[in-house]
Amino acid sequence: FAQLYGTIALLRQEEKERVIGTVINKFRGDAGLLTPGLRQLEELTGKPVLGVVPWTELDIDDEDILAPRLERKHGERTLDIAVIRLPHLSNFTDFAPLESHPAIGLRYVHGVTELGKPDLVILPGTKSTMDDLRWLRGRGFAEALLALHRQKTPVLGICGGYQMLGRALSDPLGTESGGSCRGLSLLPAETVFTAEKTRTRRRAECCAGPFQGAMLEGYEIHMGRTVLQPEHTGIARPFCRFEDGQEDGMMLDGVFGTYLHGLFDSGELVDRLAAYLAGQKGIAVPEVKTESRALYRARQYDLLADTVRRSLDIAAIRTAMRDYALRRGEKEST
Length: 334
What we know:
The chain is an alpha/beta fold. The chain contains nine helices and 16 strands. The strands form four sheets. It has a six-stranded mixed sheet with strand order 5-3-6-8-16-15. Strands 9, 10, 11, 12, 13 and 14 form a six-stranded mixed sheet that branches.
């Protein structure tokens, strides 16, 4: 209440005139108990309280790297997946669909001592691939990943993480930090950064390996091009094939790489991945059909919309919008 009153009190008069009311958000408990405080707030500000929105449990994509889910240190489910929390981590919402599978425990690790012996390690996207690759080496993650790979632990790299899995990265135009560096050499590929950025939505199908036939929906947003070294043609297989026939990514000896963000959103790859990891451990997990992320998001936003609609004086807000439009039209006509 103090923040609302203080904010309005500090506005200039012309700014105050644009405020049509206030809203109390994320309220826990009986809203009726707030009535005396709401009346006092209206008297002090001269603005009506347009609603009290209750605290509602929602699962909507987090906006930034400070998201609480990135602090999760323990998966506590049958299958343990560790995502390395890179300093320039990006597109971490790629992994939200994995959290919905009853057998998959997802956790984020920032120190090599937290890594342990997961069933899968994921190298996520990054805003600065070469800098984060140097960070991996400096923190001991590179050696730990290689040791896990020798123990047959699968590794998945997405976008920048995929680029790190190759043998070399070079940046002749200074797109990132310039120069070149050695990759993790888990895939026989080389990446060269270019000035042009790839930005496009994609539909794809996993075309080989344990995920063959899984239909994917996602997007590419990256700098650079990753090329298979010729001597490994026919040995390393592509991860998926886009609708236009173009192949993407690479898989070899339990190492998987792709440029496709949102690869788990369709739900099909989540189920295939759980079955694959369970098979690697020699255990069984429940067969489920993971809901597509699009449908799941729609239900969450519908819940949010219904909650807000019930809680706010929508008629008053629409009237204020209409009156503002009329005033603006009158000003423009004069």
